[in-house]
Amino acid sequence: MMPGATSNVGGRDDDGADDGVRIDMISGARMEGLTGMEKIRLILDGVRDGNIVILEEGLAPDEESKLIEVTMTEISPDDFTGIEIETYPKAEASNQSFLDKLMGRESTQKLTVIGPANRIETLHKDENLISTLVSRK
Amino acid sequence: MGLLTNLKDSISRVTDGLFAAEEPKRIGIYGPPNAGKTTLANRIARDWTGDAVGPESHIPHETRRARRKENVEIERNGRTVTIDIVDTPGVTTKVDYKEFLDHDIEKEDAVRRSREATEGVAEAMHWLREDVDGVIYVLDSTTDPFTQVNTMLIGIIESQDLPVLILANKTDLPGTDVKQIANAFPQHETIPLSALEGENMDEVYTKIAEYFG
Fold it and tell me: Out of A2-11, B148-157, B199-208, which region has the weakest mean confidence (pLDDT)?
């Protein structure tokens, strides 16, 4: 397994869930070297441990599609009911540079918050603000 | 690399089109649960083939398997467009069997339904990545369209360069807000309709022929 492709992001197994909610903020640089499936594993392992995962740069559309698919295969009654995920709406294509458009480069940078569906609730979302309520176990 | 890849994809699409001109395009009907996807699929199928696609229900996740109705021939402006319509389960990121208990369903049945629903959503995502040529995205016009599932799915569809037609359904209900849907996805055309009552289906069929013909 590649370095970083593990849910033990902080290098600590005890997440202190009894005391509070653990939040893993993962930088774009940390995700950059991972394959799509490693990213999904990193996210889901964290979320299944009850953590909130914040991605600095989010996922590509294809990775989001696979995240939904893998999440569905892992849902089980009374254990894991799925994920809550929020990102800011994608920036308008007009924000991309001409060179980016010409070269087919699409910016996927969008702060993304992911958590267990039974612990995170979105209170408000618009293009500039995501407000969520996180509950303890 | 992006430029070359785009060029290669474009050439591939043109040649595919030339050699498979007679193949009906598979049009996936996507959207969140309870948007009226099956009601729309049944309306289209009944109008043009006389058959239905699947059972409709107010209970979420009634459609738990993708269902395909082949060779639906839609006549518009003197020409015929043949498509396969694929009715897909409503896409979500979470399924809790307890939601089914609110609809007077016993626990054992609710657990089974939720398991089937998760399989259905995974199947729908797979179809979207691999097996559809275009998308009809159905939204309930009485609910907030600014949801993460809608944002992600439209993003996924756009990333694959699939033609997409957005339908604002349930215009027969009070509280309908078609403009809100149009504002949520200004890069796409939004067509209002009531699949249940058959309102504005003429425009829907014209747009289907235009987008997917």
Answer: A2-11
Is B101 at the interface with chain A, CB within 8 A? no
Global pTM reads 0.84
Identify residue B16 by its one-letter amino acid code.
Answer: D
DSSP assignments along A21-46, one per residue:
--EEEE-HHHHHTS-HHHHHHHHHHH
Chain A contact for B21 (CB, 8 A cutoff): no
| Interface predicted TM-score (ipTM) of this complex, two decimals | 0.82
Residue range(s) defining the domain that contains residue B45 = 24-212
Domain CATH number, residue B57: 3.40.50.300
B162 touches chain A (CB under 8 A): no
pLDDT value of position B87: 94
Identify the structural domains of chain A with CATH numbers, from first to last.
Answer: 23-134 (3.30.950)
> Under a CB-based contact definition with an 8 Å cutoff, are residues B136 and B128 in contact?
no
What is the nearest CA distance from B145 to chain A, expressed in angstroms? Answer: 12
